[in-house]
Amino acid sequence: VQLVESGGGLVQPGGSLRLSCAASGFTFRSSGMSWYRQAPGKEREFVGMITSAGGSTNYADSVKGRFTISRDNAKNMVYLQMNGLKPEDTAVYYCKRIGGRSWGQGTQVTVSS
């Protein structure tokens, strides 16, 4: 299993970023996928998830209405569109196969003016 996150960076409050996760080593189209994040000094927390066919999503209350998860099963990719970013969204973001144990290296998102 390999998960490679990308797309992070420095953005001003209110800005947007789109994170990508390239997945390989498992049957992606049959797997639900999730996003997590870990802020400095805090435990890793759930951000949201998407079902295998992409028909259903679920989000943490802290990001609901601002973040959107999507996927492209033809490309083995999952995305996290983040709008209305806040300083408290600063964290390393990770994707994960639901039910799996592997983590990628993550991608750093910093929201600051």
Q: Keywords, please?
A:
four-stranded antiparallel sheet, six-stranded mixed sheet, mainly beta, 49% strand, 113 residues
Explain what the structure shows.
This protein is an all-beta fold. Helices cover 0% and strands 49% of the residues. The protein has strands at 2-6, 9-11, 17-24, 33-38, 45-50, 57-59, 67-72, 77-82, 91-97, 107-111. The strands form two sheets. It has a six-stranded mixed beta sheet, with no helix packed on it. Strands 1-3-8-7 form a four-stranded antiparallel beta sheet, with no helix packed on it. A hairpin with a 6-residue loop joins strand 4 and strand 5 (45-50). 30% of the residues are buried.
List the helices and strands and how they pair.
Layout: E1 2-6, E2 9-11, E3 17-24, E4 33-38, E5 45-50, E6 57-59, E7 67-72, E8 77-82, E9 91-97, E10 107-111
Parallel strand pairs: 2-10
Antiparallel strand pairs: 1-3, 3-8, 4-5, 4-9, 5-6, 7-8, 9-10
* Rounded mean pLDDT score: 97
Radius of gyration: 13 Å
User: Count the helices. How many?
Assistant: 0
Unreliable stretches (pLDDT < 50, length at least 5) are none
Distance between the termini: 37 Å
Q: Which series of helices and strands comes N to C?
A: EEEEEEEEEE
The major pleated sheet works out as:
6 strands, mixed
* Main sheet strand line-up: 2-10-9-4-5-6
- How much of the sequence lies in strands comes to over 45%
Shape: globular
Instruction: Please bin the fraction of helical residues.
Output: under 10%
Total beta strands: 10
Structural class: mainly beta
